[in-house]
Amino acid sequence: MDRPPARIPLAEGATPALAQWFVAKAAHPDALVFFRMGDFFELFFGDAEEASGALDIALSYRGEHRGQPVPMCGVPAHSVEPYLARLIRRGYRVALCDQMETPEQAKARKAPTIRREVVRLITPGTVTEDSLLEASRPAWLLALAPDNEILGAAWLDISTGSFGTETLPRAELGALLARLEPAEILVPEAFAGAAALTPFADRVAHVSLPRDGARRLCDAFEVSTLDGFGTFSDAEVTAAAAALDYVRATQAGVLPRLAPPIPVGDARILQMDAATRRSLEILRSERGGTRDCLLGSVDRTVTAPGTRELAARLASPLADTAAIAARHDAVSFLLAADAVRDALRAALKGAPDMARALGRLSLDRFLPRDLAAIRDGLARAAAMADALDGAAGVPPRPPLVDNARAELVPAASPWAELTRALSKDMPARLEDGGVVAAGYDGELDALRSLRDGAREAVAAMQLDLAQEWGVAALKIRHHQQFGFLAEVPSAAGEKLLRDAKRDGPRAPIHRQTMANAMRFTCTALAELDRRVAEAGERARSRERAVVRHLRGLILDAGPAIAAAAQAMASLDVHAAAAALAADGAWCRPEIVERPEFAIVAGRHPVVEAALARARGPAFVPNDCDLSGGRRICLLTGPNMAGKSTFLRQNALFVILAQAGFFVPAEGARLGLVDRLFSRVGAADDIAGGRSTFMVEMAETAAILNQATQRSLVVLDEVGRGTATWDGLAIAWAVLEALHDRIRCRAIFATHFHELVALAGKLPDLAPAAMQVREWRGQVVFQHRVAAGAAEKSWGLHVARLAGVPAPVLTRAGAVLRALEERARGLDPLSDEMPLFARASAKAAEPAGGTHPALDALAVIEPDALSPREAQDALYRLKSLLEAVAPDADTLSS
Ligand code: ADP
Ligand code: MG
After folding, report:
1. Centroid of ligand 1 to alpha carbon of 784 (angstroms)
2. 95 near 32, Cβ under 8 Å?
């Protein structure tokens, strides 16, 4: 990330410990160095100043360096995670520099200070701890490798091991970033200035790209060729290797378990750019919340991995009819088999996140609960398999459900072994002991009973010493530093000190004097203490060995466990989709290859839910038909009538349907969409320094350049941001381009009622209007879409609703009448307008006269056209030719 480098003085003259700090800092200049000093991680110099501000902790000073006090702040080592979480969330990177030996070891080798090394680099894209991750979102680390006009992209999630690659034109980087929302982006420094990266500037890290990417990948996955994984471009391979190198570097050389990379480039997915995603509020609302968005309103999953899978599907819907239908089949099956669905969801509820536990185990950075997560997760998976198998009288399982069933129970599952080996209740940390159950390992059991026997001996010795020293109140206590000590009240202690002439193994030896008590030991107690400590240490070390063995078992079955976890997530998603369809009026959409679009009684899932929550009026369902002959819907109606809602809901149907879900409608038949464009409610790009109008035009340009005959475009009030005539002219031309040249399906909402005049000239344009009633001078929105054009815009009514003062409204009414008076007889879009020398489809039928294309050609002045206009004119001419061709409406493919 691009923060100004922290202030670092010269290293010369540093104390031995500080000298180590300088080495760590020099190796990781862009990270905050967390430097272990005993029980604390400390930060120095500029790092301390930066971190104390970011964490809101005290900045102090420790010693001097080159005559100046050293700025310092610190956090306790045992509770470092929450601090790391806050820094990572704010875009910092942290280098953990830990103590690599004990003070005794350092002393033994006569070193001036303890050896410390950077053991891990913590960056937003390489964390594995639950506290640093969002449970319901993947944490993608994305690497980009530019190669002339294209980009190789590779993304991996080390917390789950997923790994994907793609090759894309540079212009599509923005769309990729919007789809993945990476936690961290690796780019070569020369590419870091790319405009699409600007909104992600605080997540960008610079890397140098490896030259021998293929070899590195082969080595990492222990294969001799990558061909078995799919076909990769060179740039993809380079990006994938850069991501691997980075992970290895941040994990101090250890690579986590990763699935082999999957080239997703050829998997057909629905293309959506960043603006479309933003305007449709897929994974979050424009205000940033997660409730009032598509994901929030359809999410009925019961596990975090299920939510991650659902979010991933909504973020990349498919563009392949067979694959989509396979998902719909799975949902249909679980909708019909409601007992199976309930049993699956019961088994899933509360199931642990096996994928992430596996990730931490593979990095050897796990907690006891991660072992338990694998055991319990596999048990849940087995219960799900039973639920699927035991179902009587249900239709045969569709392929996706059947495949998931096959993955749920790994052939060589470590479940039985883990169940025998692990305690029921796991300690918080491995050092606490008690991870391994009694009865699993004979040697561990023996060491534990030795340790416990020694503890019993301590209890016995308490009785003996009380008697022998004549102090009934004597208690043996355990002390962190001194081990077992016999504590007696002060008076008794004084007496023991006075007649300390005794000797032998039980003679009291004074150790501590406190306010009301004194502590003693004796050689017998010290000997016992040593035995307890030794037995404890041997038991711990044996337990560590057993845990290592169990970890090995799990990692050996790693790919199968990951597959089981994935099967659980996908069943969670399918069952959740079925549950949603079961309690609401949702229907299975029919996906066809022809460019149709017919929705019966569709609803906007988010607005409907919001109205229901607010106990407001019921949502009014609306049909939408963009089939042949009415491909483009021109929607007029006053503000607040429901235009934007209608636009969005139909775009959301494409996402839901192609992501494999049912849709909130009574019926839906959708022709497969290749690219979805939505421009609804554009906001000023203040940060980017562009006005609303500029943003709108840039986005419109993107649509006109990229949309195809198979695309769906929803456009809201194009041209609203500029003067009326400019705006109308642009909206007009855009509409014509969509209709004549691109020939896509579109819904075009507008304030410009004048555009309705185009309906007579564009055969596939169907006007529609939001219904409004006037009731006692008030406007009543009916939120119903009907064929035809709106008669007036009701602007003054809406202004009154909004509380504009009456005198202003009266004045506006007078001005409006005057304007309308003047405009009468001045129909701007009558046929005499030179705006369009084009013909309607009817006129296009050669009725003995000249061909309309020839007419159009006649009025073209080649010298007056820019290259772009010339190209448009060509397209126009071609479309005039096609307009009279018999099969102009069918897809050419
Ligand atoms: P417009 O774009 O025409 O200004 P919106 O789509 O923003 O209107 O809708 C305004 C409000 O009307 C919405 O916030 C919603 O509360 C309500 N609304 C819109 N469509 C419907 C509908 N079909 N049924 C019920 N309420 C609706
Ligand atoms: Mg609107």
Report:
1. 10
2. yes
Neighbours of 436 (CB within 10 A): 26
- CA atoms 817, 822, 825, 831: torsion sign: negative
Asked whether the predicted pLDDT for residue 9 surpasses 60, the reply is yes
> How many residues would you count in the chain?
893
Rounded to whole angstroms, how far apart are CA atoms 159 and 829? Answer: 60
- Higher-scoring residue by pLDDT: 866, 30: 30
Span 432-471, pLDDT tens digits: 899 999 999 999 999 999 888 888 888 899 999 999 999 9
Q: Tokens representing 700? A: 């419109």
798's tokens = 């809406």
* 638 CA: nearest ligand 1 atom: 3
pLDDT value at residue 850: 62
pLDDT of residue 893: 35
Q: Is 307 in the pocket of ligand 1 (CB under 6 A)?
A: no
Quickly list H helices, 304-438: 304-315, 321-336, 338-348, 354-362, 368-389, 399-408, 415-421
**Beta-bridge mates of residue 553:** none
- Residues measured by CB to lie within 5 Å of ligand 2, the ion: 643-644
Give the separation between CA 300 and CA 282, rounded to whole angstroms: 15
Within 10 A of 472 (CB to CB), how many other CB atoms are there? 10
404 conformational bin, left if phi > 0, alpha if psi -120 to 50, beta if neither: alpha
Mutate to test the pocket of ligand 1, among 607, 647, 715, 717 (most ligand atoms within 8 A of CB): 607
Give the whole-number percent of the chain exceeding pLDDT 70: 92
Kindly state the tokens that stand for 236. 């993809």
Ligand 1 centroid to 643 CA: how many Å?
7
